[in-house]
């Protein structure tokens, strides 16, 4: 069946727009369907962690963010901790969600993404060789067909409901009320535990105060609409003793400790990313960052699939890699929710955790988990310490002899095959020539410090993770290129195999 586009993305929030940009960077045609008529104007998730900032840098997006506030201090379940780890963008960065969404839409559209607002998906059919949706829009209803469809339509995903995808987990038991308010002047509170509950208050430079409050012992009731500001005022009064009623709410919502994850991130030609794939309490800004990193993991793989017809295991690796990461994040969020929203009964556990977090190995482990800097994918055989991990920002020499960096060169959306010896570049280029439309071969310098032993050459995926490293245990380079970048553009000729680098 012919397709109207190669990929349909449902949802134009940050995750859907990030995915659309990634797909276009990889040369795939993409149509984004969004039921909202206009982008959000609410701040919502406002924390970008170090790994997300590194990814934005690798796509040339940081300049568009200006100079957002940087805070090295974060928390685990409300217990303060330092998030600093080796990174070009350590700590956490405060960017209102509407600004992130605006930036990603401008980027995706500039790359050629077709974003259609006021298009609400009503029906979906996976034909086996294509996917078709029926969507309502101001002009009536239309059908859109694509080779694949990705649901990025949030925790109440329409696509998930239409496909009947299994979404096991635990329902909401406790909740936090949240509001952005102007016209109030109250003390700042950072996860302050009081006799009757938990309170947070933080005022931004524009004079908007974000308040969050949870009353110990309260049980969350199912909600069909957002809470009224009066409910926030009443609970805040009971927990804190302050009167917020003179303030004007800009935005009010609630979020609970529900914790769900899809059994499969891919079913046939339908895939899921962001909150459509996993629902979690947005503690410490992890939810948005987890979703954005889903999109970056999937985008280049799906683009290679639709453009070059790669084997199914490339797309299957999206589930294998991101489901495991999501499972680990959801587990740490469940632990944090207990520490954050539990009553007096959790105080001994909080005291113990606070003491354990003073030990550097514990702090670094938790900081790596929250920031996303410790993500390492199971990319295949070999024991090289870089395999599956993100590659640090390195100095690179282009074929023209000019200086650049590995981060800057990833902005093309291509893979990188980097030679650290200075002697193998020509040989590597010969081996990788059948993938020259997808992979750049370059000389690189490690920079400060020394690379791990045996780092003669590495193959870096478009998402910045190392897929192959030259070593005695490495799979052949051609096998790694085929696995991660699809079939060669033509059948490689039989040529004299260079002595270095090793292919076996």
UniProtKB/TrEMBL annotation:
Cofactor: FAD
FAD-binding domain boundaries: 4-331
Keyword Flavoprotein: yes
Top-level taxon of the source organism: Bacteria
SUPFAM superfamilies from the UniProt entry: FAD/NAD(P)-binding domain
InterPro entries linked to this entry: FAD-bd, FAD/NAD-bd_sf, RIFMO-like
Biased composition (Basic and acidic residues): 495-504
PANTHER family per record: BINDING MONOOXYGENASE, PUTATIVE (JCVI)-RELATED, TRK SYSTEM POTASSIUM UPTAKE PROTEIN
UniProt name for this protein: FAD-dependent monooxygenase
